[in-house]
Design a protein that fits this description.
Residues 312-337 are annotated as: Disordered. The chain crosses the membrane at residues 20-39, 45-67. It comes from Streptomyces fragilis. By secondary structure, the chain is mainly α. It has a domain at 80-163 and 237-384. Helix content is 64%, strand content 5%. The protein has helices at 2-46, 52-66, 87-100, 133-138, 141-154, 164-180, 198-218, 220-256, 258-266, 271-287, 300-313, 326-332, 342-351, 363-387, and strands at 80-81, 107-111, 116-121, 126-132. A 4-stranded mixed sheet has the order 1-2-4-3. A hairpin with a 4-residue loop joins strand 3 and strand 4. Helix 5 (141-154) crosses helix 9 (258-266) and helix 8 (220-256) crosses helix 9 (258-266). The longest helix has 45 residues, at 2-46. The protein starts with a helix and ends in a 6-residue tail after the last helix.
C-alpha cells in the first residue's frame, strides 16, 4: 500500500507537470526550427542579388536540414514478418493488444537481442514488434506473453517520449547532435613516409582536418544547444516513461498473470549470460563447421540457447527476490529513481493484487508459432554467425 500510495499521489502530479514542460520544450524546438527554415529560405530567395544574405540563408537551411525529423526505419537485414507470413503469431499478438487496450502491430522483426520492444517506423508511424529470439526461445510460454504485453503497453500513449510531438523533437535533436559532431578532425594523420606520394596524402589529410576544425567551430554553439535541449527532454520525459513501465507491468499481470510477469522481470538478469552463451555457440559452430554435416542440427543453435536459459533459471541464486520490508519501503518513498529498477517493479507487483492469466498459449498454438518462426530464426542465426552477438536495447 505504501508503494501504490506514493505512485498514485506524488507520482501523478510529477508526471503531469513534467509532461507539460516536455510539450512546451518540444513546441519551442519545432517553432524555432520552422522559423530558421523560413528565414533561411527568405534570405536565399529574396536576397539573391547580394552575396552575404544567400550565404547566411544557405547556412540556416543546412542547420534546419540537420535538425529535420528522422522517421525510424527498420533494419533491412533482419527478417520481417507480416500477418500473412505468421497468422498464429499475429493472432496471439492481436489478442494481447486487444486485452491491454493498445494499438495492434503491423509487423514483427526478429532480432538477436534478449529484448522485446515496439518500433514506430515511417512517416505513418506504423508499429513493429522487434522480438528478440533469445528471449522468445529462452522463456516459457506465459513469460513470452508477459514480455510482449509489456512491450506493447510501454510504447503506448502514456509514454510521451515515444509520442509523435515530443518523440519527433527528441529524434531530430539526437540526429542533429550526431550529424554536427561527425567531423573528420579525428582522422588519423599517420601515413607511412615510404608510401607512394606520401607527402601529397599528408597534405590532403591536413586540409581535411583544417576544414573539419573550422566546421566544428562554426557548429559548436548549435551542437551544444541541441545537446542541452535533448538532455532536457530526456529528463522531462523520464516520469512518463516510468509511469508507462508501471502501467505495462500491471497490464502484463492482468494478461499473462502476475506470476509470469514477475518471472519475466526476473529473467531480464539473464541477458548478459545468454549473450555469452550465444557467443560460445557461435565460436563452436564456426570451429566445427567443416567436421559437422551441413544438415545436422538446423535448430541446434536456438535449442542450445533455450537449454542454457533453463539451466540459468534453475540455479539457486536465480530465485525470485521477495518484497521489501516496511522500513525499506519507507526509505525508498522519496527516491523515485528506484522505480526504474526491475527489483522495485517486482516488489510492487508482489505487494499488489495477484491476477490470474486471461490469455494462455496452448501446445498446438506454440508448435504452430515455432513452425512459422523457424525460417526467420535460421536467417537470424546466419546473421549471428556472420556478425557475432551484438547487444540491443
Amino acid at each position: 500500500m505504501t508503494i501504490d500510495h506514493y505512485v498514485r499521489t506524488a507520482g501523478d502530479a510529477r508526471v503531469r507537470s513534467a509532461t507539460v514542460a516536455a510539450y512546451a520544450v518540444a513546441g519551442v524546438f519545432h517553432v524555432v526550427t520552422a522559423g530558421l527554415f523560413a528565414a533561411g529560405l527568405s534570405l536565399t530567395v529574396l536576397g539573391f542579388s547580394t552575396v552575404v544574405q544567400p550565404m547566411i540563408g544557405l547556412l540556416l537551411l543546412a542547420l534546419t536540414l540537420t535538425l529535420r525529423p528522422r522517421p525510424q526505419r527498420l533494419d533491412t537485414d533482419l527478417p520481417t514478418l507480416r500477418e500473412a507470413d505468421a497468422p498464429a503469431l499475429f493472432a496471439l499478438l492481436h489478442r494481447v493488444a486487444d486485452s491491454t487496450g493498445v494499438r495492434r502491430v503491423e509487423a514483427v522483426q526478429l532480432t538477436a537481442g534478449f529484448s522485446a520492444r515496439v518500433v514506430h517506423h515511417g512517416f505513418r508511424r506504423r508499429r513493429c514488434l522487434a522480438l528478440g529470439l533469445p528471449l522468445w526461445v529462452g522463456c516459457p510460454p506465459q513469460q513470452r506473453i508477459a514480455a510482449v504485453a509489456q512491450a506493447l503497453v510501454e510504447s503506448g500513449p502514456r509514454n510521451v517520449r515515444r509520442g509523435v510531438f515530443v518523440g519527433s523533437a527528441l529524434g531530430a535533436l539526437r540526429g542533429g547532435v550526431r550529424a554536427m559532431g561527425a567531423g573528420g578532425s579525428q582522422a588519423s594523420a599517420r601515413i607511412d613516409v615510404h608510401a607512394y606520394r606520401a607527402d601529397e596524402m599528408a597534405a590532403g589529410v591536413a586540409v581535411v582536418q583544417a576544414r573539419s576544425r573550422a566546421t566544428e567551430r562554426v557548429l559548436w554553439l548549435p551542437r551544444i544547444a541541441a545537446a542541452a535541449c535533448a538532455r532536457l527532454l530526456l529528463r522531462l520525459t523520464r516520469p512518463s516513461v516510468r509511469q508507462a513501465r508501471l502501467a505495462s507491468d500491471e497490464a502484463a499481470a492482468r494478461t499473462a498473470s502476475t506470476r509470469a510477469t514477475l518471472a519475466a522481470l526476473r529473467d531480464r538478469q539473464l541477458a548478459r549470460a545468454i549473450d555469452v552463451e550465444m557467443h560460445r555457440l557461435t565460436v563452436e559452430r564456426k570451429s566445427y563447421a567443416k567436421t559437422r554435416g551441413a544438415a545436422s542440427g538446423r535448430d541446434e543453435f536456438w535449442d542450445g540457447v533455450a537449454r542454457h536459459a533453463e539451466r540459468l533459471r534453475e540455479r539457486p541464486d536465480a530465485a525470485e527476490a521477495g518484497p521489501p520490508s516496511e522500513a525499506e519501503s519507507g526509505r525508498r518513498r522519496f527516491r523515485p529513481a528506484v522505480e526504474d529498477t526491475d527489483a522495485w517493479r517486482r516488489a510492487r507487483l508482489a505487494l499488489g493484487p495477484q491476477h490470474p492469466a486471461t490469455i494462455t498459449l496452448d501446445e498446438a498454438d506454440r508448435v504452430r508459432i515455432e513452425d512459422e518462426l523457424r525460417p526467420s530464426a535460421r536467417v537470424v542465426e546466419r546473421l549471428v554467425l556472420r556478425d557475432g552477438v551484438t547487444r540491443t536495447a
